[in-house]
């Protein structure tokens, strides 16, 4: 039996030698008691590694070696004493398979009020299947957790992160500035409920590049208060497409502005590029959106604006959306629709969509030109546009 104190002494020696050698401080979670067996709860070791890295006056690295590390739930909170924390993950973080453990906490892994955190590699295994089954059976189940959230944080990098089978959303960016995500892989069953791939809200300067998202809800969803977003080189499907929305749920709501979505392949998805707003009063808005170079492969609704979103017909019937949608461009969108109506602009009678531009669109349904439908939508078409524009 080794005295537990000796681990602490070893860890301290390790830390001392690292810093005395002048290299950035590095904390290997194994040295802090984590076990790569997928069964031993390693939460404390991860939190201790975070406390050390966050408390360091100089740049610090947390290293997670190969293996499966069980984490019950963990909040990595700032502010920290340095703004250059690197988390290098060669292993897999595993959520408890029993969804009652996380219960209604809402988040599995969350970073709060941090600045300058970069995550390289890593796999997050949310083990969400049990909760999906519970929900599908119509039982009363906990709401479920987002696998990874950054909230109230700035200057974040995620490169090469994989998220599997989240209970609810995979990755959430909330109230953040300057976030770069690259080479993210998201995977969950096409019929897993509410498993949005990447959800962004109340954030500015978020870039998502070169990522592959297969899931049961939106591949990427963009909520109120999002601006200066750049999304490029994405493979989406199965999933519900890339959505701006749902917006306009609240009477007072921040708008969505300056969003570029380019070079995306949608395969067998429910939607392609979508804007959706609740059919109820709101001061929300969407303006300055470019959807460019999209390939649709058997997509049910390739281009859609839906301002009559009203799930369960509660709190909206008889009302119209207050969200103002303007300056939305669809450029070089082509491929196949799985339904007759490939372009559907269903805008608000009180706030018609304006400045909608279609440029070089070619969408077919069963080898024939598809149809377009416009309600309260104004704008222009240029170049080759099929289905024939109804703007
Ligand atoms: C729009 O967002 C991009 C980043 O996606 C940014 O580079 C550009 O400056 C923004 N434009 C305006 C007018 O803010």
Automatic annotation (TrEMBL):
Residues annotated as signal peptide: 1-22
Any single biological process term in GO: carbohydrate metabolic process
Annotated SMART domains: PbH1
Domain of life: Eukaryota
Pfam families: Glyco_hydro_28
InterPro entries registered for this protein in UniProt: Glyco_hydro_28, PbH1, Pectin_lyas_fold, Pectin_lyase_fold/virulence
Localization, UniProt: Secreted, Cell wall
Keywords: Cell wall, Cell wall biogenesis/degradation, Glycosidase, Hydrolase, Secreted, Signal
Coiled-coil parts of chain: none
Any one GO molecular-function label of the UniProt entry: polygalacturonase activity
Residues of the active site: 240
Family to which the UniProt record says this protein belongs: Belongs to the glycosyl hydrolase 28 family.
Protein known as: Polygalacturonase
């Amino acid at each position: 039996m080794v005295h537990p104190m000796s681990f602490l002494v070893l860890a301290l020696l390790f830390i001392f030698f690292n810093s005395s050698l002048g290299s950035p401080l590095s904390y290997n979670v194994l040295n802090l008691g984590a076990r790569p067996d997928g069964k031993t709860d390693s939460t404390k070791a991860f939190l201790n590694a975070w406390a050390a890295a966050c408390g360091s006056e100089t740049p610090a690295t947390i290293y997670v070696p190969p293996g499966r590390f069980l984490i019950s739930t963990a909040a990595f909170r700032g502010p920290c004493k340095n703004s250059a924390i690197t988390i290098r993950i060669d292993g897999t973080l595993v959520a408890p398979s029993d969804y009652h453990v996380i219960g209604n906490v809402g988040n599995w892994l969350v970073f709060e009020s941090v600045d300058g955190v970069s995550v390289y590699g890593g796999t997050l295994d949310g083990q969400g299947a049990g909760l999906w089954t519970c929900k599908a059976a119509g039982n009363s189940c906990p709401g479920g957790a987002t696998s990874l959230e950054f909230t109230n944080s700035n200057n974040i990098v995620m490169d090469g992160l994989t998220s599997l089978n989240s209970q609810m959303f995979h990755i959430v960016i909330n109230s953040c500035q300057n976030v770069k995500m690259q080479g993210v892989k998201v995977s969950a069953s096409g019929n897993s409920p509410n498993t949005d791939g990447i959800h962004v809200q109340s954030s500015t300067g978020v870039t998502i590049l070169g990522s592959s998202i297969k899931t049961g809800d939106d591949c990427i969803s963009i909520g109120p208060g999002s601006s200066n977003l750049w999304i490029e080189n994405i493979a989406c499907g199965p999933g519900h497409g890339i959505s701006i929305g749902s917006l306009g749920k609240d009477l007072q709501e921040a708008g969505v502005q300056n969003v570029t979505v380019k070079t995306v392949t949608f395969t067998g998805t429910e939607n392609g590029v979508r804007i959706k707003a609740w059919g109820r009063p709101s001061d929300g808005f969407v303006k300055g959106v470019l959807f460019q170079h999209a390939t649709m492969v058997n997509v049910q609704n390739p281009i859609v604006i839906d301002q009559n979103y009203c799930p369960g017909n509660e709190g909206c019937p008889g009302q119209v959306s207050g969200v103002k949608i303007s300056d939305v461009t669809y450029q070089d969108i082509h491929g196949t629709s799985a339904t007759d109506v490939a372009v559907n602009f269903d805008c608000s009678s009180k706030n018609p969509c304006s400045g909608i531009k279609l440029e070089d669109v070619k969408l077919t349904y069963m080898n024939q030109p598809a149809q377009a439908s416009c309600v309260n939508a104004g704008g222009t078409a240029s170049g080759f546009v099929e289905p024939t524009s109804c703007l």
